[in-house]
From TrEMBL:
Record-annotated Acyl-CoA dehydrogenase/oxidase N-terminal domain positions: 8-116
Transmembrane segments: none
InterPro entries referenced in this protein's UniProt entry, alphabetically: Acyl-CoA_DH_CS, Acyl-CoA_Oxase/DH_mid-dom, Acyl-CoA_Oxase/DH_mid-dom_sf, AcylCo_DH-like_C, AcylCo_DH/oxidase_C, AcylCoA_DH/ox_N, AcylCoA_DH/ox_N_sf, AcylCoA_DH/oxidase_NM_dom_sf
Lineage: Bacteria, Bacillati, Bacillota, Bacilli, Bacillales
Keyword Transferase among record annotations: no
Name of the protein: Acyl-CoA dehydrogenase family protein
Cofactor(s) it depends on: FAD
Superkingdom field: Bacteria
Family label: Belongs to the acyl-CoA dehydrogenase family.
Keywords, ordered alphabetically: FAD, Flavoprotein, Oxidoreductase
Keyword Cell division belongs to the record: no
Record domain Acyl-CoA oxidase/dehydrogenase middle: where: 121-213
Acyl-CoA dehydrogenase/oxidase C-terminal domain segment(s): 227-378
């Protein structure tokens, strides 16, 4: 796809492509096999300024917008999906905190992140509260000595145990959701199990437990009750536009690239299998669907950047369309890639079975695709 990029963006993307090809792809199979968090790859991202892309320039960032972030995450996800989730989690917290935090909070937060290769985690989901964020039960109560006491358990937290900061959403009263930036060393912050997942290995997905976890008053981002606005009006639309959709595109494109290569090399009946119409049509459909999804994602991010920080209903619908279409396409393309590889596609020695397992999660995270269709339908009917 031909897209307009500034010279700076072109240079960034060249670096990202080099990292993906030379550093991430050679490690992908091992990370998938061991399911160990790849600290070495995170260090590479940090050394190249990717983890702090959203920071202001004086803190080492470039204040990256949604369009650039989506392209970077897509490219990194071609190499390994968990690199996309690492980028998404860290930069999404930076972007969301910047929406409502006070200048003194931002200075402290940004200065800490700018030193070293530090990560951020987004803590919303609970055992009984997934797509229905209002159902969370984690509580935050004012402490007598000042600050807040947090209690609750967050599950499926990406970068659990390895993050520097955790953006925790909790109820300050039964009808208010507030956001707190909790440092890893906060008393009462503990970690539970790391999940043994079907795919997305190396992402360190697990429980974050808050047991009488004390945080200072300045851990509250914005005012009490601003957490829901951060989630519903601004944050989720902004994040979905360069989150699951971009990662799904990267995984899907990688699967298609492998399928094309295999179709050129594998021979049956004295012909390349790619010379058979059945295979060519499968490849053509995959390419068309990926390109259509990519065009929608690119246009959606352009509109998000244009409207940021207040996203219109029309663009919100496009965000849900992008997330839904791109992730459905990725699942279809990776499944077809396994089919094209035949029996080898089902064997772990070949990469497409990993890509198929990785693709599935993107139809679930950031609001299931069924919920996305509900959002689209409700906007259309207003």
């Amino acid at each position: 796809m031909v897209i307009d990029q500034t010279l700076e963006q072109q240079e960034i993307m060249q670096v990202v492509k080099k990292i993906t090809k030379e550093k991430i792809m050679p490690r992908a199979a091992e990370v998938d096999r061991t399911d160990e968090f790849p600290h070495d790859l995170v260090k590479v991202l940090g050394e190249n300024g990717l983890l702090t892309m959203c920071l202001p320039e004086k803190y080492g960032g470039i204040e990256a917008n949604s369009s650039l972030l989506a392209m970077v995450i897509e490219e990194l996800s071609k190499g390994l999906a968990s690199m996309g989730t690492t980028m998404l989690s860290t930069n999404s917290v930076i972007r969301m905190v910047s929406l409502m935090a006070r200048p003194d909070q931002l200075d402290k937060f940004y200065a800490n992140l700018s030193s070293g290769h530090k990560l951020c985690a987004f803590c919303l989901t609970e055992s009984h509260a997934g797509s229905d964020a209002r159902a969370i039960s984690t509580s935050a109560k004012k402490a007598l000595q000042g600050g807040y006491i947090l209690n609750g358990t967050k599950i499926f937290v990406t970068l659990s145990q390895v993050a520097e900061y955790y953006l925790v959403f909790a109820k300050t009263n039964p009808d208010e959701i507030s956001a707190f930036l909790v440092h890893k060393d906060s008393p009462g912050l503990h970690f539970g199990k790391i999940e043994n997942k079907m795919g997305l290995h190396g992402s360190s997905t697990g429980d974050v437990i808050l047991e009488d976890c004390w945080v200072a008053d300045d851990a509250l981002i914005g005012q009490e009750g601003d957490g829901w606005r951060m989630l519903s009006e601004i944050g989720t639309s902004m994040l979905r536009s360069w989150g699951a959709a971009a990662m799904a595109l990267g995984v899907g494109q990688c699967a298609l690239d492998f399928a094309i290569q295999y179709a050129k090399e594998r021979k049956q009946f004295n012909k390349r299998i790619g010379d058979f119409q059945a295979i060519r049509f499968m490849l053509a459909d995959c390419a068309m669907q990926l390109e259509a999804a990519r065009c929608l994602v690119r246009e959606t991010n352009r509109r998000v950047d244009q409207e940021y920080p207040v996203i219109s209903k029309e663009t919100t619908a496009m965000v849900s369309m992008s997330k839904c279409l791109a992730t459905d396409v990725a699942m279809k393309v990776t499944t077809d890639a396994v089919q094209i590889f035949g029996g080898y596609g089902y064997i772990k020695e070949y990469p497409v079975e990993r890509l198929m397992r990785d693709a599935k999660i993107f139809q679930i995270v950031d609001g299931t695709n069924q919920v996305q269709r509900m959002i689209i339908g409700s906007i259309l009917m207003k």
